[in-house]
Amino acid sequence: MTLTADRPARTVTPNRPRRGGRQGRETLLLMLPALVPVLVFSVGPLLYGIFLAFTDARSGRNAVTSFVGLSNFGDLLADGDFWASFRIGMIWAVSVTVLQFLASLGLALLLNQDLRFRGFARVLAVVPWAMPPVVIGLMWRLVYHPDAGILNGMLGTEIDWLNDFSVALPAVIVVGIWTGMPQTTVVLLAGLQSVPKELYEAVEVDGAGVWRKFWNITLPQLRPVIVAITSLDFVWNINQFGLVYVLTQGGPGGQTRLPMLFAYEEAFRYGFFGYAATLGVAIVIVVLAVLGVYLWRQMREAS
Amino acid sequence: MGKALRYLALAGYVVFLAFPLLWLLSTALKTPQEMASLHPTWIPRAPTLTNFADAFGEQDLVGSGLRSLVVAVATAVLTVVLALPAAYALARYRSMINRIALGWVLVSQVFPFILIIIPLFMVLRRLELSNTLPGLTLVHVTFVLPFALWMLQGYVRAVPRELEEAAAVDGAGRVRSLLSVVAPLLAPGVVATLLFAFISSWNEFLFALIVLKDPDVATLPLTLVKFTGAEGVVRLGPLAAASLLATVPSLVFFAVIQRRLRSGLMAGAVKG
After folding, report:
1. What is the ipTM score, two decimals?
2. Which ranges constitute the DSSP H helices of B29-60?
3. Residues in chain A within 8 Å Cβ distance of B108
4. Which end of chain B is more exposed for a tag (fewer CB within 10 A), N or C?
């Protein structure tokens, strides 16, 4: 593997981009094993799923599916249960994303400093990420349990947290934050560590304090990371299912029925495949609209 | 911010993070009698391991654990085998396909599962793969693949191109140079990706819920939910014990590869 002086170096350059079809063919060949399952089990179903939104597909084996145009969308817009679930979904996704981001940013700033025990705190930070979401849901049910739960034990209250109309959604939001915080923190921490130290040193000469350093350097430098992680968190949160399914199954009285729980019930409890797909398409449209506006504003502010 | 205040904040965070876990542990060690008493306490008065034994008696933990293990191992191996060549191509060549593939990784994050799972469910049913572990494995592989691809191509990129070129100069063929030069350097990345895929599959609940309707093929997450009972009768002790047991594999794996997985996670997330 040594390159000696008298040997003509790099007569063979196997991986340099080359003109002609060979590279393209090689790439395709290498991509094929991954491409085929993704096309067959992911892209294909996705496109078919979008198509289903315009049909009256039912779950029965012999159901004849016919094209119904936009009538599912009309039904959806007229469906009070959908709007209730949509409202809950937005409250959930926005509050989890924002609160989680603020908490994670604070934590990341903390962990980025020379504090004792921060190694321990960092390790602990990954625990929720490694836990099965089902276990997280069950664990919090134990915490929130009206009789045997520690929350009532500590507060001296007798609240049935997950079955009380007024506190169920906030209680579930707390679990969402708890679950997602580690990942957000880790990403923000990585972002913080990539901020060049010289920038801080430069303004320290000018006598800049902690706050000015934060506002003038940390935050602007962190902006791309912040935009990426909050966008992703929002998308993940609006598509959340398992955690809340295990916690409340959407109860009490639909107070925590996130859009995906609604869609799951429509599809797999009542068998309305077409209608559930319509809801999926509607959520995509909303997500793209929200993200579009958010990303556009961020880009304009940055420039 | 004063130093004391910072430690206070750190402590607050550790408490927020740790208290549900400690409560899970505490619940798992309590006797039914103590659980029934009205004032919950942190420290069990008479710690017992019977909940763990009861957990095995009440639900098919062993069977469903084994099924989860089979699906997770198959998912991990298949994912890496399928993704590795593609990751290599992504990292080393620039082409249209690359841009489309990376685009898909991002796009696939935006779409709600429901749009994919309904057609997938119909396909699996037609292939007579619904209610089977191979069917679930297939679904898991497809959903882990994009992110695994992303992780792996990052690791390939980290291997200097010059090493391969040097090997080629020394007369090694493409395959030789891949196997003897690139593969060893890539091994840690492959391990991290394997474990990422394993844990994703081990933890996965929703697709299992939809694909595996038959109780005889239930994976561990499905079995865990059964502890909450159909009629609202919840046996808290065994539930806590089983939950702890289900977390052990993830935690062990995580402890082993913690640092590596984190850098992979960061690379993926930050570059996204």
Report:
1. 0.86
2. 32-36, 50-58
3. 42
4. N
